[in-house]
Amino acid sequence: MAHPLAGQKAPQELLLDVAALERAYVERKPDLSKPAERVAFGTSGHRGSALLGAFNEAHLLAVTQAICEYRANAGVRGPLFLGKDTHAVSRAAERTALEVLAANGVEVRLQADDGYTPTPAVSLAILQHNGQGAAERADGILITPSHNPPEDGGIKYNPPHGGPADTDATGWIEQRANALLEDDCRGVKRIAYERASSAPTTRSIDFVEIYLQELPSVVDLAAVREAGVRVGVDPLGGASVGYYARIAERFGLNLTVVNPNVDPQFAFVPLDHDGRIRMDCSSAYAMAGLAKLKDDFAVAFGNDTDADRHGIVVPGSGVMNPNHYLAVATDYLFRARSGWPKNAALGKTSVSSALLDRVARELGRPLYEVPVGFKWFVPGLSDGSLGFGGEESAGASFLRFDGRPWTTDKDGLLLGLLAAEITAKTGKDPGRYYSELTARLGRPFTTRVDAPASPEEKAKLKQLSPDAVRATELAGEPIRARLTHAPGNGASLGGLQVKTDNGWFAARPSGTENIYKIYAESFLGDEHLQALLTEAKSIVQHALAG
């Protein structure tokens, strides 16, 4: 049940007290006896709120020092590209990071004029530097908690491959950062911000210009211009806010930024399903403002705060389901990109729609299925063995026209501009394209529910063997696969997936609550989906009891 205010602007009493947050960032010290106040790198870095002692100056000092030591041990001595998003605490966190980086003698490149930098712009800058035969490799840091609420902050590290750091890197950084915190950060090198910002190792660059110069190599903006496609964009107050006006001017696009404002309270973002402000561009609630304008544009889109995700809005139906757009994007791209390697695969995460499997099969392309996390796509996007990598949470990237890598991290700007290209080149917006695609390949019905699980049951679910599933049928169809490891790379799914010809479910334990999540999909209709869901719960309970 959605919150009664979901999709509406937040009342004053729900808005963030920015001054209190900024004070807490500096003044509050984490209580390391509480796991929630220690450094913990998830799939997208360390995140938390300064108000809760989870993202404070001490965390930034420790994490940045740990990154300095990690990159030194790895022999990374080139520039570090430092970017930040528009969250209220991001500017202060960037200053702290720069103080540590400069004290460690790291060459830092950051956006001129104190500007904001999307995640894909940092990934592109890293790859561009390292692809030019530079003597020393570059890497990057992003100050962002992605689409999290306004009170949160975050920091993540992208090594020289340009994509999200793997668990070996994040595990080392996390362990070292917590050791520094336990020693009251005495092992952290730091100089005053005035010295750090004027140090010879610190230099301002224009990430926007780098991005714009390379953009024609990956998306056909000339076609968008010539077709006169009316494009609407809502950056949701995020880091892409300074990019779209320059893109429109440079490439002559009929593009309107419907909301160019930046506000640390994000008061203009409608409340999400749970009554909180969350800059989730795949949420129909958070995107309600742009959805109201759906018939004013041929296609429209938004981004989350660090612009690594996309949300597509089409006339008539409004905000597209992320899986629906991924199917459209892959079907279009593998037909339109003749310069891609003939054996380049379609990459998807295990809980993305099986419609992508059907797209790959129809196109005769290999399918590369991996666990949740964009990091699994980095090797394939780097060497061209993957034409496209996309995950169910509206994050994706793909190769340039000639098959070279674009970014090895998610690029929300690119997927939005691709929607304009699709509209221009096919004469159909992505919503119409999806209707025709599903008429041919079948329409998926999907859901996700939570079920209670004890800590012991959650631990057992993560370690299940496929043999624990004794059932031979699921919702009236023979079971074709029982999986606890991804077919693409053999990595653990951290749970269980069961597949039939026309449906599947996946069960994964929550990392923060005593529940497990069940994802389910059917191509036979909603009644079959409900039957599948009921039997999925029974299969999981029997497996856990066995």
Overall structural class, as computed from helix and strand content, comes to alpha/beta
Number of helical stretches of at least 4 residues: 17
The percentage helix is 25-40%
Portion in strands: 15-25%
How does this model look, in words?
The chain has three domains: 14-205, Alpha-D-Glucose-1,6-Bisphosphate, Chain A, domain 3 (3-Layer(aba) Sandwich), CATH 3.40.120; 212-441, Alpha-D-Glucose-1,6-Bisphosphate, Chain A, domain 3; 445-545, Alpha-D-phosphohexomutase, C-terminal domain (TATA-Binding Protein). The radius of gyration is 23 Å and the shape is globular. It has 546 residues and is α/β, with parallel strands linked by helices. Strands 1-2-6-5-3-4-7 form a seven-stranded mixed β-sheet, with helices on both faces. A five-stranded mixed β-sheet has the order 9-8-10-11-12. Helix 2 (57-73) crosses helix 3 (90-103), helix 4 packs across helix 7 (207-214) and helix 8 crosses helix 14. The chain has helices at residues 18-27, 57-73, 90-103, 119-130, 167-182, 193-197, 207-214, 221-227, 244-251, 288-291, 322-336, 355-363, 378-383, 412-426, 430-441, 455-462, 526-545; strands spanning 41-42, 45-49, 80-84, 108-111, 139-143, 152-158, 202-205, 231-234, 255-257, 299-303, 310-314, 318-319, 345-349, 367-370, 386-391, 395-398, 445-452, 473-474, 477-478, 481-485, 492-499, 503-509, 515-522. The two termini are 34 Å apart. It is built from 17 helices and 23 strands.
